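So, can you check?
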Amino acid sequence: GDITYIPTGEGWLYLATVIDIASRRVVGWATSDHLGTSLVADALKAACQQRQPEGPVVFHSDRGSQYTSQAFAALAAGHDIRLSVGRTGVCWDNALAESFFATLKNELVSQRRWHSRAVARSAIFDYIEGWYNTRRLHSSLGYRSPAEYENTAA
């Protein structure tokens, strides 16, 4: 999991994601006009709702205050999620999330100006749910989309 910033005419829109490391699928995400713990909590709740994990799973993030808060730890524990954090100042520890954000910004965010958070949020929805997860091919997945990879791995 990680957070990125998207500039809009109304100010920053913050995007938090939860990505499945095996399939590269964005399984949970949330946007907000603030960087509070509720942003990352909403993304994790969305991932849990979509995946309904059974047994312990590992959630990896950086050492941001949202991810190291007591509220986030309690939410994770309630879903039998074990928290893992990267080393201080080492962005490669969360390379999967950083790679997704670079792709998102290159393929979507930098392509136009976002006049409002609502317009940016709608475009992000279309990108993640309509393109990235279902149709965008990944060399690391044998040139399959995350959805196709999951369907053939099952």
